[in-house]
Design brief:
Family: Belongs to the trans-sulfuration enzymes family. MetZ subfamily.
Enzyme class: transferase
Number of domains: 2
Pfam families: Cys_Met_Meta_PP
CATH topology of the largest domain: Aspartate Aminotransferase, domain 2
CATH class of the largest domain: Alpha Beta
Strand content: 5-15%
Strand order of the largest sheet: 1-7-6-5-4-2-3
CATH superfamily of the largest domain: Type I PLP-dependent aspartate aminotransferase-like (Major domain)
Number of strands: 12
Largest sheet: 7 strands, mixed
Number of helices: 15
Order of helices and strands: HHHHEHEHEHEHEEEHHHEHEHEEHEH
Keywords: Amino-acid biosynthesis, Aminotransferase, Methionine biosynthesis, Pyridoxal phosphate, Transferase
Bound molecules: pyridoxal-5'-phosphate
EC number: 2.5.1.-
Shape: globular
Structural class: alpha/beta
Helix content: 25-40%
Amino acid sequence: MKKTTGTDRSITRNWRPATQAVRGGTWRSEHGETSEALFLTSGYTYDDAQTVADRFAGEAEGMTYSRLQNPTVAMLEERIALMEGAEACRAQASGMAAMTTALLCQLSVGDHVVGARAAFGSCRWLLDQLLPRFGIETTVVDSADNDAWDAAIRPNTKVFFFETPANPTLDVVDMAHVCGLAKSRGIISVVDNAFATSALQRPMDFGADVVAYSATKLMDGQGRVLAGAVCGSQEWIDEVLLPFQRNTGPNISPFNAWVVLKGLETLGLRAQKQSENAVELGRFIEPRVPRILHPGLPSHPQHSLAMAQMSATGPIFALDVESRERAFALLDALELVDLSNNIGDARSLMCHPASTTHAAMTEEARAEMGVTEGLLRINVGLEDVEDLREDLDRALKAAGL
Ligand SMILES: *Cc1c(COP(=O)(O)O)cnc(C)c1O
């Protein structure tokens, strides 16, 4: 494997994120292929026994088994790290594999975690159900309240875990404050950056230690594969994450890694355009509904914080139409926007969190998170925004709005 161009790392590592999205991490085989090659292989062969022994001893470079290294996966990992401004990255089989790995690799019985109240349903399950089973204490806080983070710290607090903007209520966390607080108290901050991606916000620029991804969302961007990633310092990845990952095996398939690698090439364009479409559609919907939760609109309580942390506010927002009947009537009248619980796709998608993504939670937990019976979440895609407006207009009317 070689790089026919881009071999001088003193030059290539300084390329800007938009260049890294297209070029970062590219290795080329002896064929000099333009597009990254897909290495669908679980293992490797060796020229002689000493070579194998040296690789297993860590004394020679080279791959030994795809749970440990794979060339296509390595290209994806290098590209994500370069775009993120992180020293290192490891790809995972899914977003939840990434979150589970990022937490379990560094936690032990007796540790304490402070997590955000508003979160992806399965992220809350990790905090509320899984970690306590292993003797790891957890506290959930209103992540928009800076003082709540401080007040929740205990002597054994090891990790802060949050997403921003958060699913599905679009709460925004003040990353400079919360990650700075963590750092000052020797706590590792783990940020789930699935909603924004490095194209719109880079948590490490605000002091985050670890950035974890569902790459299923905007990174793939076309609704094709499940994928995830965890970024951190070289030392943390090598010494904390890798021993866990190599022995438990939440690895991504090379095929899925290749799909995401190609998705990253257009991530910046898609994220910007979908954000613009989301703001336009939000402005159209706002006067028609009782409540809209959209970090890109001045009515959002944390609008200025979102604008300060993000280059654009992303494709996702939520609206509250006050009852399940109205919400279902609206969804059932859509002709263009698909009824789907996915996000980050180039297609516009809409869902009712209380009966889908957050249905497994208790009613009290939903109420505490602001997931009401009338809440709808929309992922705004790349369609002509005029067509989206017409579709929403028809659907809002069907819901009596
Ligand atoms: C989707 C999502 C996840 C889980 O990712 P999967 O790829 O579906 O496993 C985690 N966090 C957030 C914020 C998400 O949106």
